Amino acid sequence: MAITVDQIKTLRGETGAGIMDVRKALTESDGDMTKAREWIKQKGLSRAASKVDRETGALYVFSYVHFNGSVGSLVKLACETDFVAKCEDFQKLGKEIAMQVASMRPETVEDLLAQPYLRDSKNTINELIQQVSGKTGENIRVLAISVL
Q: Could you write out the DSSP letters of every residue in the chain?
Protein backbone atom coordinates (compact mmCIF):
# COMPACT_ATOMS: atom_id res chain seq x y z
CA MET A 1 0.00 0.00 0.00
CA ALA A 2 1.25 3.47 -0.86
CA ILE A 3 1.88 5.78 2.09
CA THR A 4 0.36 9.24 1.63
CA VAL A 5 1.68 12.58 2.82
CA ASP A 6 -1.58 13.09 4.73
CA GLN A 7 -1.01 9.85 6.67
CA ILE A 8 2.50 10.97 7.56
CA LYS A 9 1.31 14.42 8.66
CA THR A 10 -1.54 12.99 10.74
CA LEU A 11 0.57 10.36 12.50
CA ARG A 12 3.42 12.79 13.07
CA GLY A 13 1.00 15.33 14.55
CA GLU A 14 -0.52 12.71 16.88
CA THR A 15 2.72 11.16 18.08
CA GLY A 16 5.42 13.80 17.65
CA ALA A 17 7.67 11.13 16.13
CA GLY A 18 10.18 12.03 13.43
CA ILE A 19 9.24 11.82 9.76
CA MET A 20 11.47 8.82 9.09
CA ASP A 21 10.07 6.94 12.10
CA VAL A 22 6.52 7.70 10.98
CA ARG A 23 7.26 6.55 7.44
CA LYS A 24 8.87 3.34 8.72
CA ALA A 25 5.94 2.68 11.08
CA LEU A 26 3.43 3.13 8.26
CA THR A 27 5.49 0.97 5.89
CA GLU A 28 5.86 -1.86 8.41
CA SER A 29 2.15 -1.72 9.25
CA ASP A 30 1.04 -1.60 5.59
CA GLY A 31 -0.55 1.81 6.08
CA ASP A 32 -2.66 0.75 9.08
CA MET A 33 -2.71 3.86 11.32
CA THR A 34 -3.57 1.90 14.49
CA LYS A 35 -0.71 -0.54 14.02
CA ALA A 36 1.63 2.33 13.11
CA ARG A 37 0.72 4.18 16.34
CA GLU A 38 1.46 1.03 18.33
CA TRP A 39 4.80 0.60 16.50
CA ILE A 40 5.78 4.18 17.36
CA LYS A 41 4.64 3.72 20.96
CA GLN A 42 6.77 0.59 21.34
CA LYS A 43 9.76 2.29 19.74
CA GLY A 44 9.35 5.21 22.16
CA LEU A 45 9.22 2.85 25.11
CA SER A 46 12.41 1.09 24.04
CA ARG A 47 14.15 4.46 23.57
CA ALA A 48 13.11 5.45 27.09
CA ALA A 49 14.46 2.19 28.53
CA SER A 50 17.87 2.86 27.01
CA LYS A 51 18.05 6.24 28.78
CA VAL A 52 17.11 5.09 32.28
CA ASP A 53 20.70 5.21 33.59
CA ARG A 54 21.39 8.75 32.40
CA GLU A 55 21.65 11.46 35.05
CA THR A 56 18.70 13.81 35.50
CA GLY A 57 19.98 17.17 36.71
CA ALA A 58 17.26 19.58 35.56
CA LEU A 59 14.42 19.83 38.07
CA TYR A 60 10.96 21.35 37.80
CA VAL A 61 8.17 21.45 40.38
CA PHE A 62 4.57 21.26 39.18
CA SER A 63 1.45 22.02 41.18
CA TYR A 64 -2.24 21.36 40.82
CA VAL A 65 -5.07 22.89 42.82
CA HIS A 66 -8.60 21.62 42.28
CA PHE A 67 -11.07 24.28 41.10
CA ASN A 68 -12.78 24.47 44.51
CA GLY A 69 -9.49 24.68 46.40
CA SER A 70 -10.18 21.54 48.42
CA VAL A 71 -7.19 19.52 47.26
CA GLY A 72 -3.82 20.19 45.70
CA SER A 73 -0.60 18.43 44.86
CA LEU A 74 3.08 19.01 44.17
CA VAL A 75 5.24 16.91 41.88
CA LYS A 76 9.01 17.19 41.48
CA LEU A 77 9.98 16.01 38.00
CA ALA A 78 13.52 15.71 36.65
CA CYS A 79 15.04 15.45 33.19
CA GLU A 80 18.54 15.76 31.78
CA THR A 81 18.57 19.35 30.51
CA ASP A 82 16.79 22.61 31.24
CA PHE A 83 15.96 22.83 27.52
CA VAL A 84 13.67 19.79 27.81
CA ALA A 85 12.37 20.97 31.20
CA LYS A 86 10.96 24.01 29.41
CA CYS A 87 9.54 22.16 26.40
CA GLU A 88 5.78 21.78 25.92
CA ASP A 89 5.75 17.96 26.22
CA PHE A 90 7.58 17.98 29.56
CA GLN A 91 5.44 20.81 30.90
CA LYS A 92 2.24 19.03 29.92
CA LEU A 93 3.51 15.79 31.47
CA GLY A 94 4.24 17.54 34.78
CA LYS A 95 0.78 19.12 34.90
CA GLU A 96 -0.92 15.81 34.08
CA ILE A 97 1.04 13.98 36.78
CA ALA A 98 0.22 16.69 39.34
CA MET A 99 -3.49 16.32 38.52
CA GLN A 100 -3.16 12.53 38.79
CA VAL A 101 -1.54 12.84 42.22
CA ALA A 102 -4.28 15.17 43.48
CA SER A 103 -7.09 12.92 42.30
CA MET A 104 -5.67 9.44 42.99
CA ARG A 105 -3.58 10.27 46.09
CA PRO A 106 -0.76 7.74 45.71
CA GLU A 107 1.33 7.30 48.83
CA THR A 108 4.67 6.77 47.08
CA VAL A 109 6.24 7.51 43.72
CA GLU A 110 6.19 3.76 42.99
CA ASP A 111 2.43 3.66 43.65
CA LEU A 112 1.98 6.60 41.28
CA LEU A 113 4.00 5.01 38.48
CA ALA A 114 1.88 1.86 38.60
CA GLN A 115 -1.47 3.70 38.49
CA PRO A 116 -3.55 3.77 35.30
CA TYR A 117 -3.43 7.23 33.74
CA LEU A 118 -6.71 9.10 34.35
CA ARG A 119 -7.19 10.29 30.78
CA ASP A 120 -6.24 6.98 29.15
CA SER A 121 -6.51 3.93 31.39
CA LYS A 122 -4.74 1.76 28.78
CA ASN A 123 -1.50 3.42 29.90
CA THR A 124 0.08 3.65 33.32
CA ILE A 125 1.77 6.82 34.52
CA ASN A 126 5.11 5.07 33.99
CA GLU A 127 4.21 4.37 30.35
CA LEU A 128 3.14 8.00 29.91
CA ILE A 129 6.53 9.12 31.22
CA GLN A 130 8.31 6.67 28.91
CA GLN A 131 6.38 8.00 25.92
CA VAL A 132 7.47 11.56 26.66
CA SER A 133 11.00 10.34 27.34
CA GLY A 134 11.09 8.63 23.96
CA LYS A 135 9.77 11.77 22.29
CA THR A 136 12.21 14.18 23.98
CA GLY A 137 15.20 11.85 23.90
CA GLU A 138 15.91 12.34 27.60
CA ASN A 139 15.53 10.36 30.79
CA ILE A 140 12.60 11.65 32.88
CA ARG A 141 11.98 10.77 36.53
CA VAL A 142 9.44 11.60 39.20
CA LEU A 143 11.49 12.45 42.27
CA ALA A 144 8.81 13.38 44.82
CA ILE A 145 5.07 13.77 45.21
CA SER A 146 2.89 15.42 47.82
CA VAL A 147 -0.86 15.71 48.26
CA LEU A 148 -2.02 18.79 50.13
A: -PPPHHHHHHHHHHH---HHHHHHHHHHTTT-HHHHHHHHHHHHHHHHHHTTTS---EEEEEEEE-TTSS-EEEEEEEES-HHHHTSHHHHHHHHHHHHHHHHH--SSHHHHHHSEETTEEEEEHHHHHHHHHHHHTS--EEEEEEE-
